[in-house]
Write a structure and sequence with these properties.
The complex is a heterodimer of chains A (280) and B (492). With 280 residues, chain A is an alpha/beta fold. Chain A is built from 13 helices and 9 strands. Chain A has 2 domains: 7-129 and 198-275, Rossmann fold (3-Layer(aba) Sandwich); 133-186, no CATH class. Helix content of chain A is 42%, strand content 19%. In chain A, strand 1 (7-14) and strand 2 form a beta hairpin. The longest helix of chain A is centred in the N-terminal third of the chain and has 15 residues, at 75-89. Chain A is globular, with a radius of gyration of 18 Å. Chain A starts with 6 loop residues before the first strand and ends in a 5-residue tail after the last strand. By secondary structure, chain B is an alpha/beta fold. Chain B is 31% helix and 19% strand. Chain B has helices spanning 14-25, 43-46, 78-91, 181-191, 215-223, 225-241, 243-246, 250-267, 271-276, 294-299, 356-359, 393-413, 423-437, 441-444, 467-474; strands at residues 2-10, 31-34, 98-99, 104-110, 115-120, 123-132, 154-157, 171-175, 194-198, 205-206, 289-290, 303-306, 310-314, 317-320, 325-327, 330-333, 348-349, 378-380, 416-421, 482-486. Classes of the chains: A alpha/beta (280), B alpha/beta (492). At the A-B interface, helix 13 of A face helix 6, helix 8 and helix 15 of B. Chain B: It comes from Pseudooceanicola albus. Chain B: InterPro entries: FAD-bind_Monooxygenase_sf, FAD/NAD-bd_sf, Flavin_mOase-like.
């Protein structure tokens, strides 16, 4: 009796690697929505909630990043994967591009490169330029990784969730959640890329109608980064969710609300608007 | 003598009070609230059975604009909710507008005068705009049980609890396993000599994260209202998350199911009893219940579970559909309410002189879940497709109140004397809703529930989407869906 969402899997080759993506939802008056996950993520890991729920509203496409063959992972590699999926899944007409965390940096860069194609842009907990605070956290992560420390996933979990959310769970529950994170060489390469992000110039050229979503209690990409994106992108509006960085888990329904409202009418709020939170 | 008010509201539960407060706050004083009982509070006045409490945390289940920093618990008991409602009515100066002991008997639309006439137990009223706020849980549902009149002991419905009846040491039967029953059963188990529970179908049950607030917390809520607001928002969005279960997304359905079945397994050791307490339909198809006390009460030595419906009564002997019989002294019917066919609808007669109940012979429906073609100048709060399986109905009520306020502004500014939902707009709205309802757990979950109208198989009670989407879509007046006749408002 489960309502199994009908979806199709696609695959596209770019720079010698295969990139898999998933498509679901009806064609209607909304622009197809393309979802780009963040560090150590996947469609299921970061969009397990947003993908099926948005697919009841409109066409949704989400891709899983693939590791590349270069010595280091570069932003351009991930942008190329997103561009390839957009080209394959939506050959004609505009898209709304959503990126989360590192995926937001990828999405912003993509929007700068494809000004006609990316009509609307949603940046969730992204950033403009890696700062000292992020480098410090990344350095601790690197040290734990080099030591092959068992604490690394607990450290990542500690950084990802807000105190408020964590306090609704028990310590064993949080430890169990940490145990589900898997390390890999690809994650290492993403973490290295995270120390070198600078899309400030590209953001100045973005023409897409943009919604920037910052997370009030984000300790990994604090909300001042989202404010910087809000300033840097010409046609941007801003809203905030009282969540940690892991907003896709913590406040998935509130995130859905903002995405749903924006994809329904991207221009409902003029550029420069700080959209207030809905007060229940 | 006929009394005239510009606006008449039926009922003084959360809907009627919320409407009255906002009318008053918007500077409108020409309204009365008709209330059949002697106090405000709606379902929280009527339901005073032992153990009555709300399944939504109190900081959310309250008016957004009247926060209460000193709720005693996360899930406060029923009498505290009713006291809050009375306090709201008094603080907002609503009491002089309420006509207690005044039961609405019939509302009739008169096209010539463009007025509603309301016949009540205390004389007639007329009004330009009629607003019903009679709720989903206003009138008890009693199943027709053969031989019920032969029962010599005490027998009553949960919403009409007889506190005179002594329960200590007696043989008590509780009929039902829904939201009221699971609150009553633990209380009965404490006092009964023998308790028999008649269960037509087993509920899914998850733990209740209840606790008392400390004095320090209450002081914090008083000193810093933003802490109440933050908590309210957290509860609301956590509730919204669970709509994914109702939407029937396997991953989230399975999460909820695992939580409920894990709860059953932890609390019920006996495999036979556990099997009989395991639901045979999809989680969320009926209301997902929350209790920490139910399973322990079901496991108690003085409790017996009859895992079949109550079938017949022969004197003091009460039979389950399985054929099993029990001799009982007291029988409590926790069998719910007339929600799918609300009794108020049989008393509201529109342009053709037909009752709403007859008009809705294939199930309730309304444009924007609030207005019905053929029934001009009427708003229904908490009517068709406004129920929620996953969040606070007070939130829905506030959205509908805001809709009505905007409508009144529009009518006043444009000098409209008569407005009516357009038939095409109403049908188009219902088609959109039914499209959304398809595949949800209510229609595809394989259960019989009070959410679905048996006559049409349509989901008529529940809003088949997020609560926040209800506010986004129905929190503002849509004049384009109405036919309007200009002219000055009639007055008696």
């Amino acid at each position: 009796m489960l309502d199994d969402l009908k979806y199709r899997d696609g695959e596209v080759s770019v720079a010698g690697v295969r990139v898999r993506y998933r498509v679901a939802g009806p064609d209607n008056d909304r622009t197809p929505l393309v979802l780009v996950h963040g560090t150590a993520g996947s469609v299921d890991g970061h969009f397990g909630y947003i993908f099926p729920m948005m697919a009841y509203r409109q066409k949704v496409i989400a891709l899983d990043w693939s590791d590349t063959e270069g010595a280091t992972l570069e932003l351009a590699d991930l942008v190329a994967q997103v561009r390839a999926v957009i080209g394959d899944a939506v050959p004609v007409g505009p898209v709304t591009l959503l990126g989360y965390s590192l995926g937001a940096c990828v999405a912003a860069q993509t929007a700068a490169e494809l000004p006609g194609k990316v009509a609307n842009l949603i940046l969730v907990a992204g950033w403009l330029k890696t700062d000292t605070h992020q480098q410090m956290r990344n350095r601790i992560w690197r040290a734990l990784r080099d030591q092959d420390s068992a604490s690394i996933t607990e450290y990542m979990t500690f950084c990802a969730f807000s105190p408020g959310f964590m306090n609704m769970k028990s310590l064993p529950e949080m430890v169990a959640a940490a145990g589900m994170l898997k390390m890999s060489g690809f994650v290492d390469r993403q973490m290295d890329l995270n120390t070198r992000i600078d899309i400030a110039e590209a953001c100045e050229t973005i023409t897409a109608k943009t919604l920037v979503i910052g997370c009030t209690f984000d300790m990994m990409v604090p909300k001042h980064h989202s404010k910087q994106l809000f300033g840097a992108i010409e046609d941007a509006r801003y809203t905030e969710i009282p969540s940690g960085h892991a907003v896709v888990h913590e406040r998935a329904a509130e995130l859905f609300h903002h995405i749903d409202m924006f994809t329904r009418a991207p221009g409902a709020h003029p550029a420069g608007t700080i959209i207030p939170a809905q007060k229940p | 003598m006929t009394l005239h008010s510009k606006i008449v509201i039926i009922g003084s539960g959360f809907a009627g009070l919320g409407m009255g407060i906002q009318l008053k706050r918007s500077g409108r004083a020409d309204f009365v609230i008709l209330e059949r009982a002697q106090d405000v509070g709606g379902t929280w006045r009527d339901n005073h059975y032992p153990g009555v409490a709300c399944d939504v945390p109190s900081h959310l289940y309250s008016f957004s604009y009247l926060p209460k920093p000193d709720w005693s618990r996360v899930f406060s008991p029923g009498p505290e909710i009713q006291a809050y409602m009375r306090q709201c009515a008094e603080d907002e100066g609503l009491m002089p507008h309420i006509r207690f002991g005044t039961e609405m008997l019939a509302c009739r639309w008169d096209e010539d005068s463009a007025l509603w006439t309301i016949e009540t137990s205390q004389g007639d009223y007329t009004c330009n705009v009629l607003i019903t706020g009679t709720g989903h849980l206003a009138d008890s549902h009693m199943p027709k049980i053969p031989g019920i009149e032969s029962f010599p002991g005490d027998l009553f419905h949960s919403a009409d609890w007889n506190h005179e009846v002594a329960l200590e040491g007696r043989r008590i039967g509780v009929v039902g396993s829904g939201a009221s029953a699971i609150q009553i059963i633990p209380e009965m188990q404490k006092v009964a000599g023998e308790l028999v529970v008649f269960q037509r179908s087993a509920p899914y049950m998850i733990p209740r994260w209840d606790r008392a607030f400390s004095e320090g917390e209450k002081r914090m809520f008083r000193r810093d209202p933003s802490t109440v607001e933050a908590m309210r928002s957290e509860i609301f969005w956590a509730g919204e998350y669970n709509f994914a279960q109702r939407r029937n997304v396997p991953r989230f359905l399975n999460e909820a199911k695992a939580m409920a079945l894990g709860n059953l397994e932890r609390n019920v050791a006996d495999p036979d009893l556990r099997a009989r307490l395991t639901p045979n339909y999809e989680v969320g198809c009926k209301r997902l219940l929350i209790s920490n006390a139910y399973y322990p009460a079901m496991c108690a030595e003085n409790t017996r579970l009859e895992a079949s419906a109550l079938a017949k009564i022969e004197g003091s002997t009460v039979y389950g559909a399985s054929g099993e019989s029990y001799d009982l002294d007291v029988l409590v019917f926790a069998t719910g309410f007339e929600a799918v066919r609300p009794p108020f609808a049989a008393r509201v007669f529109g342009r053709e002189g037909i009752s709403l109940d007859a008009h809705w012979d294939k199930g309730m429906q309304a444009y924007d879940s609030i207005a019905v073609h053929g029934y001009p100048n009427l708003f229904i709060i908490n009517g068709p497709n406004t129920g929620l399986g996953h969040n606070s109905v007070v939130y829905i009520i506030e959205a509908q109140v805001n809709y009505i306020l905007e409508a009144l502004d529009h009518l006043e500014q444009n000098q409209v004397r008569l407005f009516e939902a357009a038939a095409e707009a109403e049908d188009a709205y219902m088609d959109r809703l039914q499209g959304r309802a398809e595949g949800t757990v209510w229609l595809a979950g394989g259960c019989k529930s009070w959410y679905v109208d048996e006559r049409s198989g349509r989901l008529t009670l529940v809003w088949p989407d997020y609560a926040h989407s209800f506010r986004d879509e129905n929190g503002h007046f849509h004049p384009e869906g109405y036919e309007m006749v200009p002219g000055p408002l009639a007055a008696e």
